[in-house]
Amino acid sequence: MKPQPRYDANRRGMVERIANSDNRGSVVRRFVAACLLGSASCTLVVDTDAVQCETRDDCSEFPGTICLDHACIVATPGTPGECRNHADCASLRDDPWICRASDAVCVPLLSEHCQTLLGDYQNDQAIFLGSLLQTKGESATTGLPVENAIRLAIKDFEQAGNGLPPAPGRSARRPLVLIGCNSGVDPIAAARHLTNVVQVPAIIGASFSGVTIQVATEVTIPGKTLLLSPSATSAAITQLQDDNLVWRTAPSDDLQAAAVQQFVPRVEAHLREDLSLSDEPIRLAIAYKGDSYGRGLTDTVESALSFNGKPVAQNKDNYLRLDYGNPTAEALARAVEELLAFEPHIVLIFGSTGGVTGVFKPLEEQWANPQYRPRYIFSDGGVVNELWMFVNDDDELRRRIRGTVPGTDNALFRTFRSSYNAVFDDGTSPDVFGAAGGYDAVYLLAYAAVSIGSKKITGPNLVEGLKIVAASGNESGQALDVGLNFINDAFATIASGQALNFEGASGPLDFDVQTGEALSDIQVWCLPKDKNGQATAAVASGLFLNAKTGMLAGEEGTICD
């Protein structure tokens, strides 16, 4: 006798057991029709035994069902165990969805703020990485080159052999997949999608220090996700209570501040010579973005800055400090008005694109003093297309511009630059601060993933892998160089169990594993010109702060003339 349908409160659905296997098809049809017409969620169990299944394969006779509590039930969206692999989600949802490893639930890879997808995401061995960068809006010229660099690195691993070697005990290689998010509108929402929905083990980003601190504090640290920033330099990041889950290829601004402090007297000496000034005091102003990056860099520079032969505190009427907001049009306009009234000889601009377009550009356009025009020193945030595009063929202005940026000009960086320019013809520059660091970040995460062997690819485990491949105590270990030509040798080196010493396009990256930070030289950059006399992207001048000695070294080359 056929049992009557019953309701199972624990499963919140209708459960019907069938004694005769011959009438299963009709029951399934009637059951599906009832589910489609009814409002309640339905759960169909078809078998005569108490234990109907052990795995999902045991429920293969009934499409759309999964094995839960040893019973074949119809999978409803969000049901743990609803998928076995990414292909299940592709059949149940609009592409691209994947089967999340932690609970076998189908989740979307993309969201409103996360629209970039690169790599073989349908591969069940794929390792998913997120990026959180300002790729749209005013600061896109800083974020897009970093995203491009990440894409370039992932393509390197594809070309070298479809990603990473198989995990121990498996035979399939592991491709890298990027889910790229724009941080310019709602970075928290974007970070939550990556951390809580997709559950990526690591995010490369954010572009700026303030966003990095906010995202780390509110999302990635609680979510046990590794945040690896290629361009956040605020000294405040060092002090985060981050469970060792915030790392950066960019050095603390304490180093950049030292470079600026030592460079200003050189600029002053040239200025005095050019203007035939002897004992007359010069005026210096710092205009900075009102966030943790701009404010922190200004505080540090100000603490030991000297001009007119004395510190800031003794210059009084010859020093002006301006916060131009975060930024707003009104604050930018007020800052320009104050600078015009102050008539500085030297202007330090610590910010990003807004500092170039909202402070530097109108100041130059409205400058009225015929006796001289200011010398400018930008921080790393000033390395944007808008700067050299505005300078154009104004050779006199080009010569008045210098800046500082963390990084190196070693052979690995030059190879990275060449590879970037060969792939991307979109007007972006690999010299933008953070691009080389973003490229390095992919390699660091890939090598860290290989180094942890059979452990799950999680944020904390990747941190353990970073300690293996890039710790500051590994300087004498086997070289692990960034770049396509070194990938397979690097895999072999990691497998050998030797001590490892990572060398990146952005520098040596010997990390203090307690803080997740590495020292870096600070380059003094200038704007060269092309054969037509037009200013081109910023390049290292040859003068730099040596991170190990803390002193300026080298000399500016003729490229700056």
Rg, alpha carbons: 29 Å
Tell me, briefly, the overall form.
elongated
Class by alpha and beta content: alpha/beta
Low-confidence stretches: 1-48
Number of helices: 15
Instruction: State the strand order across the main sheet.
Output: 16-13-17-18-19-24-25-26
Distance between the termini: 97 Å
CATH architecture descriptor text of the domain at 254-411 and 520-560:
3-Layer(aba) Sandwich
CATH superfamily of the domain at 254-411 and 520-560: Response regulator
Describe the structure.
- With 561 residues, the protein is α/β, with parallel strands linked by helices.
- Among the domains are: 69 residues, no CATH class; 199 residues, Response regulator (Rossmann fold).
- 35% of the residues lie in helices and 20% in strands.
- It has 15 helices and 26 strands.
- Strands 16-13-17-18-19-24-25-26 form an eight-stranded mixed β-sheet, sandwiched between helices.
- Strand 3 and strand 4 form a beta hairpin.
- Helix 6 packs across helix 7 and helix 13 crosses helix 14.
- The longest helix has 23 residues.
How would you concisely characterize the structure shown here?
The chain has 561 residues and is of the alpha/beta class. Among the domains are: 6-74, no CATH class; 254-411 and 520-560, 3-Layer(aba) Sandwich (Rossmann fold). α4 packs parallel to α5 (209-220).
